[in-house]
Each structure stands twice: as C-alpha cells, then as structure tokens.
Amino acid sequence: MPRKKKVFEIVKEVKAIARERVGTVPATKPIEPKSARKKPKHKKPMEEEIE
Q1: What is the rounded radius of gyration, in angstroms, for the C-alpha atoms of the chain?
Q2: Helix (H, G, I), strand (E, B) or coil at 9
Q3: What's the confidence (pLDDT) of residue 9?
Q4: How many other C-beta atoms can be found within 10 angstroms of the C-beta atom of residue 7?
Q5: Which pLDDT value is given to residue 17?
Q6: How far is residue 49's CA from residue 16's CA, in Å, rounded to a whole number?
Q7: Closest Cα to residue 15, out of 25, 6, 7?
Q8: pLDDT band at 49, cuts 50/70/90?
Q9: In angstroms, what CA-CA distances link 51 with 28, 46, 47?
C-alpha cells in the first residue's frame, strides 16, 4: 500500500517557526508551599523560639 501524503497543518508550522525564533520552553518547576515562600508577618517573641 502506498503511504499517505503529509497534510500541511498551519498550527504545527507556526509552532515550529516560533520554536526557531524563541527557543524551547523551559522545563516546569515544582511550586513550593506558600508557607515556605513567604516569611511570617509577625515574628514570634524570643522566649517562644528558645523553648
């Protein structure tokens, strides 16, 4: 059986051109929990931190 002809798809072509110009998309990074990202608004008194 003869192979199918490749159909021109504009979306794939546009994405290929964009990848050429901009480069590949950076890999995803895991999101840290909000408590680890932000500092507490109110610092605890020194007495509580020691115990």
Answers
A1: 26
A2: coil
A3: 93
A4: 6
A5: 93
A6: 56
A7: 25
A8: low
A9: 40, 9, 7
Q: Exposure string (b/e) for 25-42, b if CB count within 10 Å is 16 or more? A: eeeeeeeeeeeeeeeeee
Which residue shows structure tokens 């990202």?
Answer: 37
- Write out pLDDT tens, residues 12-38: 999 999 989 988 778 888 888 887 877
- d(CA 20, CA 13) in angstroms, rounded, equals 11
pTM for the complete prediction? 0.39
Both tokens of 23, joined, read: 């480069």
- Tokens representing residue 45 in the block: 């008194």
Question: What distance in Å separates the CA atoms of residue 15 and residue 24, rounded to the nearest whole number?
Answer: 11
> Tokens 């192979």 label which residue?
3
